[in-house]
Design a protein that fits this description.
Length: 160
């Protein structure tokens, strides 16, 4: 019995640390006006607002050592083909002179690298969902420049 408990504890620890060292849990954003669920640190600060037809939710970890910082916004979906939306967004990202390359690509989004100075590199992601008549766009929140590991972790955390 003791061996089973130790095995369980080991497996639980591995899965808890599989997100860049951050344990993530499912967070329901319905109380903030978005009928979606994402994975985020348990200790988060969630803010919500609207600007015209656009709704925004920002999720930041309260832990200063955390790298979790995600912005989600929704608007009426003019396209329902997520692949077309991804292609449009890739063209927009590639038109920015700071864009350098894609790190990961998925049918619903991507993680990319950009240079924000001659020597400094940052990472961001875009992920898209169509739900009902809304398009949800997920990205790193404005603020700190994220590492590749952090951008990948947040990308995986918002995927459904």
């Amino acid at each position: 019995m003791k061996k089973i408990f130790l095995l369980f504890l080991t497996v639980t620890t591995i899965f808890a640390c599989d997100n860049g060292g951050e344990a993530l849990q499912e967070i329901n954003l319905l109380p903030f006006g978005m009928p979606i669920t994402v994975k985020a640190p348990a200790d988060t600060l969630i803010t919500a607002g609207t600007m015209g037809d656009m709704q925004e939710v920002v999720i930041n970890s309260k832990d200063s050592s955390s790298v979790y910082s995600v912005q989600i916004y929704s608007v009426g979906a003019s396209l329902i083909d997520v692949g077309a939306i991804v292609n449009e967004e890739k063209a927009l990202v590639e038109s920015d002179s700071s864009f350098t390359k894609y790190i990961m690509e998925d049918p619903k989004g991507f993680v990319y690298e950009y240079k924000y100075s001659d020597t400094d590199i940052g990472y961001d992601f875009r992920y898209f969902r169509i739900q009902g008549d809304k398009k949800y766009t997920f990205r790193t929140s404005f603020g700190p420049f994220h590492t590749e590991e952090a951008a990948k972790m947040m990308f995986e955390a918002v995927k459904n």
